[in-house]
Amino acid sequence: MFPVGRINSYRAAQAFCDYLNSRGITAQLEQQDEFVIIYVRSESHQTVAQQELNEFLRNPNHPKYQAASWNAGSTSTNHQTAQSWSGGGTAIKSFLARTGIATKVIALLAITVTLVTGFGTNSLVFWFTFHSEAILNGQLHRLISPIFLHFPVLGIPFLHLLFNLMWFWDLGGRLEKRFNASLLIYHTVVIGLISNISQYLVSSSNSIFGGLSGVVFGLLGYCWLRGEIDPRLGFKLNKNIVIFMMIWMALGFVGALGSIANAAHLVGFLTGLALAWLDVKVFKFR
């Protein structure tokens, strides 16, 4: 998909999207923070759609846009009526629609492994740890499996898992919806692999570590830098999110969050930055 621009009103964005579709230009919307990003499927339609957007912003109440929405069945009245009938179901569907299948599967794996291992407290945790001797003996899954382990933080069992899933759902879902499932899986594996190895190298031989947080910081770095060096993509993180996560990382390094995998966080973030730079500057991937 190719970005056209952004509008701060979902209803207005939907009206414009309906108009593009009525002209044979396949378009879709994606909510990002306070803005709605408009994409078109074909690069050949990108310039035309951007010109149409400029015209729409000058006169959004033109009858042609209302007619397109009416024909598409997405007027504000229809939208509100659907919400009033569906109630909480609409919110759940909207939440699930923010991600793709890869995001959901990875999140489900993290939940399953965490519960099966009793939040890292029972003997089953051994089968998912980074164990160098076992890896050399062919158990290669251990290179990546620690990302699915989660442990109590500050004495709260669910805190580690919920925090990581919340950010992975947002950042991973954003990547997958903008690009595809393959890119998210590739980035998750690369970031997870490098962050796990880094954490192992700075840990004692008998230490156990785990969590999606190294991947989360990697996706954060990727999304942030990608938006900065490729602004045409319409893929820009709110800077307050980045500041918050940097503060969270710093708290880990000063010990305010207990014993956590700080090396995985830092290296994961740096790996995400590197992947963003490579995708834009070297591979020209859009």
Automatic annotation (TrEMBL):
<dbReference type="Pfam" id="PF12122">
    <property type="entry name" value="Rhomboid_N"/>
</dbReference>
<keyword id="KW-0472">Membrane</keyword>
<keyword id="KW-1003">Cell membrane</keyword>
<dbReference type="InterPro" id="IPR023662">
    <property type="entry name" value="Rhomboid_protease_GlpG"/>
</dbReference>
<keyword id="KW-0997">Cell inner membrane</keyword>
<dbReference type="InterPro" id="IPR038236">
    <property type="entry name" value="GlpG_N_sf"/>
</dbReference>
<keyword id="KW-0812">Transmembrane</keyword>
<dbReference type="InterPro" id="IPR035952">
    <property type="entry name" value="Rhomboid-like_sf"/>
</dbReference>
<feature type="domain" description="Peptidase S54 GlpG peptidase N-terminal">
    <location>
        <begin position="1"/>
        <end position="78"/>
    </location>
</feature>
<dbReference type="InterPro" id="IPR022764">
    <property type="entry name" value="Peptidase_S54_rhomboid_dom"/>
</dbReference>
<dbReference type="InterPro" id="IPR022732">
    <property type="entry name" value="Peptidase_S54_GlpG_N"/>
</dbReference>
<feature type="transmembrane region" description="Helical">
    <location>
        <begin position="181"/>
        <end position="202"/>
    </location>
</feature>
<dbReference type="GO" id="GO:0006508">
    <property type="term" value="P:proteolysis"/>
</dbReference>
<feature type="transmembrane region" description="Helical">
    <location>
        <begin position="208"/>
        <end position="225"/>
    </location>
</feature>
<feature type="transmembrane region" description="Helical">
    <location>
        <begin position="237"/>
        <end position="257"/>
    </location>
</feature>
<dbReference type="InterPro" id="IPR050925">
    <property type="entry name" value="Rhomboid_protease_S54"/>
</dbReference>
<dbReference type="Pfam" id="PF01694">
    <property type="entry name" value="Rhomboid"/>
</dbReference>
<feature type="transmembrane region" description="Helical">
    <location>
        <begin position="105"/>
        <end position="127"/>
    </location>
</feature>
<feature type="transmembrane region" description="Helical">
    <location>
        <begin position="147"/>
        <end position="169"/>
    </location>
</feature>
<feature type="domain" description="Peptidase S54 rhomboid">
    <location>
        <begin position="138"/>
        <end position="280"/>
    </location>
</feature>
<dbReference type="GO" id="GO:0016020">
    <property type="term" value="C:membrane"/>
</dbReference>
<keyword id="KW-1133">Transmembrane helix</keyword>
<protein>
    <submittedName>
        <fullName>GlpG protein</fullName>
    </submittedName>
</protein>
<dbReference type="GO" id="GO:0004252">
    <property type="term" value="F:serine-type endopeptidase activity"/>
</dbReference>
